[in-house]
Design brief:
single chain, mainly alpha, three-stranded antiparallel beta sheet, two-stranded antiparallel ribbon, 4 helices, 9 strands, rod-shaped
Length: about 290
């Protein structure tokens, strides 16, 4: 910050044409002016002119001063900034590694501290959860043990009931089967599966190639005959005898009224013979009888 030189100051100060008075200072000037015949009003007017000049001069000097101060201040600020920036860059380059290490250490220390705090919080939470899980496990094991005991009791009761029910059902089925198919019963089927595989008792196939007939005394309307259980009889084919053909010795065929027809014939066997079929129309099935 410099001092305004006198030439520059004179160039900026306002010009004021003063009276040519003989006084050496302001008071003497006014006394001189008064002595020259100026009245009081003229002296006041002269004084006012001096005051306005002083104010204008001071104002111009202050403006110039402010401009000078501002310019020099800006130059100083810029120079300071430049010097500060350059110095900062120099100092930064010198201390950057150390600052980086210190910052990294601070960050690591802070991270370790934060991590330790979070780790402690996590461990505390884990301990709480672990305690809760252990409590839950104990309660669950107790409940499972109680339920297992109840389940085992229920299972044993169910097995007992099932066994009893199964035995009762088996007995009922056997009794029912004994009632429906007692020993000596006959079972008719279209398959050759022995009924002992699905019915109670021992079964044997019987009456192969034979038909069944009711036991007891029967009649065909003309003849009567008695049939006993387990009897067998009958034949597939039969060779007729002379009596069955109603022939006489001479071969004459007798009519129902006893008169003979004049046709002479001889009995079977003289010129060949053939058995006739006695088999009725049939449908083949399996006969099974229960023997025990």
């Amino acid at each position: 910050m410099g001092i305004i030189d006198d030439d520059k100051l004179q160039s900026i100060l306002p010009k004021y044409s003063v009276l040519k008075l003989s006084g050496k200072n302001l008071a003497q000037q006014y006394v001189s002016a008064f002595n020259t015949g100026m009245n009081v009003y003229q002296c006041i007017n002269q004084l006012q002119g001096y005051i306005e000049w002083v104010i204008k001069a001071v104002d111009d000097v202050v403006v110039q001063w402010n401009d000078t101060v501002y310019s020099q201040l800006q130059d100083s600020i810029n120079a300071t900034k430049q010097a500060t920036t350059e110095q900062f860059n120099i100092e930064w380059q010198k201390n950057k590694a150390q600052l980086d290490a210190e910052i990294e250490g601070i960050i690591q220390d802070q991270f370790k501290q934060d991590w330790q705090e979070k780790e402690n919080a996590i461990n505390a939470k884990i301990n709480v959860v672990s305690t809760d899980l252990e409590t839950f496990k104990t309660e669950t094991n107790t409940t499972l043990s109680q339920n297992q005991t109840a389940f085992n009791n229920f299972k044993e009761e169910t097995n007992t009931k099932f066994t009893t029910t199964k035995e009762e059902l088996t007995e009922l089925i056997n009794t029912t089967l004994d009632s429906i198919y007692p020993v000596g019963s006959v079972y008719i089927s279209l398959t050759n599966n022995n009924p002992s595989t699905y019915l109670k008792g021992t079964w044997e196939q019987f009456a192969q190639g034979r038909t069944l007939i009711g036991a007891g005394k029967g009649s065909d309307g003309t003849n009567t005959q008695t049939f006993n259980v387990n009897d067998t009889g009958g034949e597939y084919k039969h060779l007729l005898t002379k009596k069955e053909l109603s022939l006489i010795d001479y071969g004459a065929l007798l009519q129902q009224n006893g008169s003979a027809i004049g046709v002479h014939a001889h009995g079977p066997g003289e010129s060949g013979s053939e058995k006739i079929s006695l088999m009725q129309p049939y449908y083949t099935v399996y006969f099974w009888k229960r023997v025990s």
